[in-house]
Design goal:
Elements lengths: L1 H11 L8 E6 L6 H12 L2 E6 L2 H11 L7 E4 L2 H9 L3 E2 L4 H6 L12 E13 L22 E2 L6 H14 L1 H13 L9 H9 L5 E5 H9 L12 E4 L10 E9 L5 H11 L2 H11 L2 E2 L8 H4 L18 H10 L3
Parallel strand pairs: 1-2, 1-3, 6-7
Antiparallel strand pairs: 3-9, 4-9, 5-7, 5-8, 5-9, 5-10
Helix pairs in contact: 2-11, 6-7, 6-13, 7-13
Bound molecules: fe (ii) ion.
Length: 333
């Protein structure tokens, strides 16, 4: 009898809300996150069921499953996708004094449907041997003096979309489009590869100036990254726009699903992610920046030095529809 009941519970699976689990739809796939989840389980007794896929696939799944979706928490590595989930009506507003008391307002959605649990900034890297006057702003990447020297990944990549959309937010569509055209004119090769590939291309001599998130470089300082570790001395690091708005930042973002079967556990999980303990683990695991004050980033990240960041609200550039149109209009791959 008892076995039958347990079996029935198992077969019902995630469609039945359980007091002791939370279903995490995650597009993060860092091994180090595992420790964060097991620590949460240890503290709360709530099991974390990880469902990992690309953000687009997870969002598609939540959409098609509708009210029956087992998703409790959605975790993404950029603001654009999580905001798209919000615009699709898939998320629930989060009301939490813990969150609003510890996370800077610019990292929280205007409707409270998503928030950043860690931040990443988008640096300019350059070949110290070949570039005497590196671009010190994103705008300067479009300066004709750098013709044939610049490499980026595809414009449709979320990091490139967020960067262009933030330029739209600051300077308007016309200026942003002109900048995008100037950048295209300066390319050393067709946009390709991931962020690490851009920095690698400095080492290999293919590119002189590239754009990439800070942690791809910091990682190579701490562990073996093929084609990069051992050669980082030749790579110069620029924190752009230090004399004006500051470097562009993005977030690893978290949200609670609108139809979460374990909504209470989901909120506990979100609050746990902004606890000092989880913040330290998040930051160290992927060399990101904590969102909570007084938590130290990793040694590799600290070695990059202090800098000023653009504190425009991420909600101002979270919808990257126009940025994608501009890349398409100018034929940026
Ligand atoms: Fe990334």
């Amino acid at each position: 009898m008892r076995a039958a009941l347990i079996l029935a519970g198992l077969m019902a699976g995630t469609s039945i809300a359980s007091a002791a689990e939370v279903n995490l739809f995650s597009s993060r796939h860092y091994d180090t996150d595992e420790a964060i989840y097991s620590n949460f389980t240890e503290k709360t007794g709530i099991t974390v069921n990880r469902i990992e896929d690309s953000a687009d696939k997870l969002i598609e799944r939540m959409q098609s499953e509708g009210e029956l979706s087992p998703a409790d928490v959605l975790l993404t590595v950029d603001v654009g996708r999580i905001d798209r989930a919000a615009r699709l009506g898939l998320l629930a507003p989060m009301e939490s004094d813990v969150v609003s008391g510890s996370v800077p307002a610019e990292l929280i959605d205007a409707d409270g449907e998503w928030l950043g649990v860690s931040t990443r900034v988008r640096n300019i890297f350059y070949d110290k041997n070949d570039v005497e006057n590196p671009p010190m702003t994103y705008e300067a990447l479009a300066d004709p003096q750098y013709e044939g020297m610049v490499c980026t990944r595809s414009g449709s990549n979320v990091y490139m979309l967020a960067l262009l959309q933030s330029i739209i937010a600051h300077a308007g569509e016309d200026a942003a489009k002109e900048w995008a055209m100037g950048l295209k004119n300066n390319l050393a090769r067709d946009p390709q590869g991931g962020d690490t590939d851009q920095i690698r291309a400095i080492v290999s001599g293919e590119c002189d100036i590239v754009v990439a998130n800070h942690y791809y470089f910091a990682r190579a300082l701490r562990k073996e990254v093929e084609g990069l570790t051992g050669s980082t001395d030749m790579v110069g690091v620029v924190f752009p726009n230090q004399d004006d708005r500051g470097i562009h930042q993005n977030i690893s973002a978290v949200a609670v699903a609108k139809n979460a079967p374990n909504a209470e556990n989901a909120m506990k999980f979100v609050e746990y992610l902004v606890s000092p303990e989880a913040q330290k683990m998040l930051a160290d695991g992927n060399d990101e920046f904590p969102v909570v004050a007084d938590i130290e980033p990793s040694d590799g990240v600290k070695s990059l030095g202090d800098f000023k960041r653009d504190t425009i609200s991420l909600a101002e550039f979270a919808d990257t529809t126009r940025a994608q149109e501009i890349w398409d209009e100018i034929g940026y791959q």
